[in-house]
């Protein structure tokens, strides 16, 4: 016997079960979706926080983002930009002074013994305990251009290189020889002038070195670098870094600042910023390039001097064999 009510009841029960399963499934899906969205949001927040921290390390100076010597090297770059023009002007003045030293006998009276004058200068100046020839030539001693002994130090340096300048006639005699002198007088005069000019070439490296040791740069822009280094130097070296500094002192500071400063070592060892370390490496590479360029300039000067020396020897040999 078929019972409609039983069939209807069974169908309703089945639908109720299915509806319950469906609603539970939807609830589970919604819950899973909520969990997924929540985890994604938390992950995004975490990534953003991590990136913000990294950005702070890379960009925030208070968290070590700025390399320790950055400000000082920026100031040093500005100073070095002025070195070329200022150095050229100083060298030009020193070259004039060197030329005047080599031609000093031109200012003597016509009949005054030139050789005796040079001998007297050597005996009067070089035979003193305070005349340190090796230091004048070989050491890079900082020189104050405003000191009373600056000009005398330059003359002493020139004297070491050329203790007996060419014996030149007076200016009046030179003009007479040029106009009405005999062939022998003119030849002797030409040889003396050529030798004096060659002596200037031989002395040029001494002139450049003297200029590079002249203290003319105000270190105010990179004073904190000096403050980091000075405590670890000898009292003698500390005294050299007081007041203005020379181009040689600036180059030495930029090349050795890091290895002499324990603060820089601590900074590189402890900074959380990889960007700061990368920037510091870039600054180091730039300084290395600068030092290499200076070495190249020194090498070029050495080649020029060797070429000049060879030319002078060949010329001298030709004159002797003539």
List keywords for this structure.
322 residues, mainly alpha, 12 helices, 75% helix, 0% strand, rod-shaped
Layout of helices and strands:
Blueprint: H1 4-59, H2 70-102, H3 114-125, H4 133-138, H5 150-161, H6 171-180, H7 183-212, H8 223-229, H9 235-240, H10 247-260, H11 262-270, H12 274-320
How does this model look, in words?
It is a single chain. By secondary structure, the protein is mostly helical. The chain has a domain at 71-270. The chain has helices at 4-59, 70-102, 114-125, 133-138, 150-161, 171-180, 183-212, 223-229, 235-240, 247-260, 262-270, 274-320. α2 runs antiparallel to α7 (183-212) and α7 runs antiparallel to α12 (274-320). It is rod-shaped, with a radius of gyration of 40 Å. It starts with a helix and ends with a helix. The mean pLDDT is 80.
Uncertain residue ranges: none
In what range is the share of β-strand residues?
under 5%
Mean pLDDT: 80
Task: Please tell me what the overall shape is.
Answer: rod-shaped
Helix segment count?
A: 12
Helical residue percent band: over 70%
Biggest beta sheet summary: none
What's the number of extended β-strand segments? Answer: 0
Task: Report the C-alpha radius of gyration, rounded.
Answer: 40 Å
Span from first to last CA? 152 Å
Computed structural class: mainly alpha
Query: What is the string of SSEs from the N terminus onward?
Result: HHHHHHHHHHHH
Describe, in short, the structure shown.
It contains 12 helices and no strands.
